[in-house]
Design goal:
Length: 94
């Protein structure tokens, strides 16, 4: 049995890798498959998933450096407190 602790290998598909290998498929893996791990690995993916499946969540919009001005304008429409999150795993930001 393999217990995968960090999210990074899960998001990259380690569970799927084990399932698709003839020998390793017999080994139990504790942790979600890649598609499910994306809920933790990408805030944008998670929010879009929740919206698509009518799961209540705070309103959101996604911005990048290419549309930074639109992001700043969006912040002006909000009342504090609000939360800004970077897409991706926190470990990637260190």
């Amino acid at each position: 049995m393999v217990v995968v602790g960090p999210e990074d290998p899960l998001v990259k598909g380690i569970h799927d890798y084990f399932l698709n290998d003839k020998i390793l498929a017999k080994v139990g893996v504790i942790g979600p498959q890649m598609d499910a791990a994306m809920l933790e690995g990408s805030k944008d993916f998670a929010k879009a998933f929740m919206k698509r499946h009518n799961i209540p969540t705070a309103s959101y919009q996604t911005f990048s450096s290419q549309n930074l001005r639109a992001g700043l304008d969006y912040l002006e429409t909000l009342n504090a407190p609000y939360v800004l999150k970077a897409d991706g795993l926190a470990a990637e930001r260190v």
